[in-house]
From TrEMBL:
Keyword Oxidoreductase on entry: yes
Cofactor needs: Fe cation
First-tier enzyme category under EC: oxidoreductase
Native species: Medicago truncatula
EC number: 1.14.11.20
Listed name of the protein: 1-aminocyclopropane-1-carboxylate oxidase-like protein
GO molecular function: desacetoxyvindoline 4-hydroxylase activity; metal ion binding
Domain of life, per lineage: Eukaryota
Gene3D superfamilies: B-lactam Antibiotic, Isopenicillin N Synthase, Chain (2.60.120.330)
Database matches in InterPro entries: DIOX_N, IPNS-like_FE2OG_OXY, IPNS-like_sf, Oxoglu/Fe-dep_dioxygenase_dom
Amino acid sequence: MGTIDTTKPNFDSILSERIAFDETKAGVKGLVDAGVKKIPTLFHHQPDKYEEANNTSHVIPVIDLKDIDNQDPSIHQGIVDNIKEACETWGFFQVVNHGIPLSVLEELKDGVKRFYEQATEAKKSLYTRDMNRSFVYNSNFDIYSSPALNWRDSFACYLAPDTPKPEDFPAVCRDVILEYGKQVMNLGTLLFELMSEALGLNPNHLKDMGCAEGLIALCHYYPPCPEPELTVGTTKHSDNDFLTVLLQDHIGGLQVLYEDKWIDITPVSGALIVNVGDLLQLITNDKFKSVVHRVLANQVGPRISVACFFSTALKASSKLYGPMKELLSEDNPPKYRETSVADYVAYFRAKGLDGTSALTHYKI
């Protein structure tokens, strides 16, 4: 399963359905507002082959950053060791006492909700498929390539490396997104330092490579779904960046694939979820794992989440990334060929969320 099969007789009807949905510029929320009781077939997903796990046996690590500045080197090393284990085994962990005020997290969720719950007419002018804008609002970025659509709408804000112009962002959520962007940049820089240490490298190593250069906030709105068993909120995928910092609300639905079973990531109040991206797996030569995850559709909603991606995305750059030579040896030769961030992201986007990893394309 990948791009739509253009040889199938129903290709034209599938495409015209997707075009019609796109042209409403109202997204999935528009369907819910119109009162749909049965979801359109373009949202129907094939059943997943992996089972749900009994969650009592697996809980992703929660790492407390409260004592990160403690002068006792053993306390600092303990945090580094926890991060190392989380990145090598799970690819996912939650952080508490991360330094971002709870009031900012709450205001951010409220601001994202305010944006989506404006009148459709107020949002239509911002609906676009032009990825070069600094604010991109649409439903299903891969609408013309994915096997089935996701039950969610999204907007992306490009926060770094270029300083955003406040007037490019909607007034209903502008201030809090810019504030949150600054705070996440600080947290991400700290996490890259701890991860560099976890790899046995100088704390500035990943930062000096440019891993913290770009930041994109992807703000999702998952409306309540009348038939959640037929669709998903986000298809299973791994992230096309170096690192993701995710704020999710209390509703839940995020699952990570661990030992071929789906594990729920239960929301922890005030916590942020951190996960390794594909590019970090590539440069660590598989030492850190970029793990497959998905979001279920839910009859309850809306669910709000904000994923901050450390990546320069499609910005042209000649900088190439391959497995770090400091981690390579005769027993551990490079497993990937070099790529630029823009090329990797372009390949990921063209492929769409089809349930396969873009990393396999770069394997040696």
